[in-house]
Write a structure and sequence with these properties.
The chain contains 14 helices and two strands; from the N terminus they run βαααααααααααβααα. By secondary structure, it is mainly alpha-helical. Strands 1-2 form a two-stranded antiparallel ribbon. The radius of gyration is 20 Å and the shape is globular. The relative contact order is 0.16.
């Protein structure tokens, strides 16, 4: 098994679970029943759990940056196509599943969990990950993140390409400063403007800090840049308080400490390994499964706090197991075929 920083596995797993419960609280009638008895818990899932996406963004920047160490950065289009074909197959399967469920089981779905269908133009926008930029309704919850991930990776690729050295590899100082400039621009300006939330620059404060965190553990120059960014992002929080910025900084600190202390794992616990490997499948397929859970809950006539909460927890556990299967028998073979 390959060496990796095990804390990233744990952070990804925890963040994915929180996103599940956020969508459960936002879209399902089960949450309405539970909220009658446990309003504080449902309120936490609805308002606070969604910030877990900041953890994904920092980790994504960290892992992408690791991949560029001592690598050629001249083939930008090739790198982008490779990234797209890593993201798209499972993503398209997930929104296809959500679409089929919404057509076949529409009568059992409540309006707020029912994706809005607008024909082939909507599907084409989703295929090219342009639905949010074109202001079209999403075919599934949370898929905006896939589009933003590709945009963020594209920004990173083009920045490193523009700032490469004579050997076609990234110039550490120039790359660190370039990433820092865009990271701080995001924290101090773009992240304060909701109109930018369909574009990578809105989220680059988290992603860029993840990039700098990865390099700070390798290059002394990058550590200095990272430290300055941490201070200036903290000042940005003081200027306009945003809890997501605090979570971004905290995640960055955890990753840097784990890197410095060499908290790696050559033999990750098998359960953690399976759960970490299946987080992308879990992230994509949990919403179609929530749609199925809603249909079954309504059809079986379940009610009451205890029954509804137990049903929701069992559903959460089931989609976790199914995601592991999707990762092993669908996602992994697709990755081999698209290399």
């Amino acid at each position: 098994m390959e060496d990796r920083i095990v804390i990233i596995d744990i952070l990804k797993i925890l963040a994915a679970q929180l996103i599940f419960w956020h969508h459960w609280s936002a879209y399902t009638p089960m949450a309405d029943v539970v909220a009658l008895t446990w309003p504080d818990g449902v309120n936490f899932f609805y308002h606070s759990a969604r910030m877990a996406v900041q953890v994904f963004l920092v980790c994504a920047g960290f892992l992408s940056a690791k991949g560029f160490v001592n690598q050629n950065v001249d083939q930008v289009l090739s790198l982008l196509m490779e990234r797209y074909f890593r993201l798209a197959p499972l993503y398209l399967l997930a929104i296809g599943m959500a679409t089929v469920i919404s057509f076949m089981l529409a009568q059992g779905l409540t309006p707020r969990i029912m994706p809005t269908q607008q024909g082939w133009s909507q599907w084409m926008a989703h295929i090219f990950l342009l639905q949010d930029i074109l202001h079209l309704p999403a075919l599934s919850a949370g898929i905006w993140y896939v589009a933003i991930d590709l945009q963020l990776f594209a920004c990173l690729c083009f920045l490193l390409w523009m700032l490469k050295n004579s050997n076609q590899q990234m110039h550490v100082v120039k790359a660190s400063l370039g990433i820092a400039l865009l990271t701080l621009s995001s924290a101090w300006f773009f992240n304060l403007q909701p109109k930018w939330d369909s574009w990578a620059v809105y989220f680059f404060s988290a992603y860029g800090l993840g990039v700098l965190t990865a390099w700070a553990g390798i290059y002394r120059q990058s550590f200095s840049v990272w430290l300055i960014c941490i201070v200036l992002i903290a000042l940005s929080y003081w200027w306009v308080p945003r809890e997501r910025l605090l979570l971004t900084v905290l995640t960055s600190l955890i990753l840097l400490i784990a890197t410095h202390l060499r908290i790696h794992s050559y033999s990750v616990n098998r359960v953690v390994d399976y759960l970490s490997g299946s987080t992308y499948a879990f992230f994509l397929f949990h919403f179609p499964f929530l749609m199925l859970m809603t249909v079954l809950w309504d059809g079986w006539g379940l009610s009451g706090f205890a029954f509804t909460l137990i049903y929701s927890v069992l559903g959460w556990f089931t989609i976790g197991v199914l995601s592991i299967g999707i990762n092993i028998w669908v996602e992994t073979p697709i990755k081999r075929w698209t290399r």
